[in-house]
Design goal:
By secondary structure, this protein is mostly helical. About 80% of the residues lie in helices and about 0% in strands. The chain is rod-shaped, with a radius of gyration of 23 Å.
Length: about 180
Amino acid sequence: MSWIWIVAVFVVFIIFLWSKYNSFILLRNRYENGWAQINVELKRRYDLIPNLVNSVKGYMTHEKEVFENVAKARSQAMQANTVAEHSKTESQLTNTLKSLFAVMENYPELKANENVMRLQEELTSTENRISFSRQFYNDIVMRYNQAIQLFPGNIIASMFNFGRQDYFEVDEAQVQDAPKVSL
């Protein structure tokens, strides 16, 4: 009779272990999907930036350094591999875009250029999508990190090597001084 209780406890433990493991897999897949969505939007951003720069280059002949800084920041951002690297390089890219937009304000003829205005609208839309994707990703990462840190999940997580994930964070200065894209 006691062996039935032992088997029952073992079966309950296996079901619990299986359930927790599967919940970690589901959360991991969700944060990986969230990161993939961020990458889609970042790729779109990287594609829009050269179009915007090329559209305004003809008007801004004396601003070579600004264009070079934007190109360099874009290149560095595209080469980032980890979430922490992306966070750092995206902050740098946003700061260089801020300087580009600030210089663009000195050229009133750009305000009338439809192509520049359309690209700015697309870039603003993309920035909003990145923000929403980042929020989704960070929410899922928070849920995942909590699940692997809370008892008894922390024991199971350590058994199967589920590790803590980084948030996609931005500089506080960047949050306060987001690029203004209105001309």
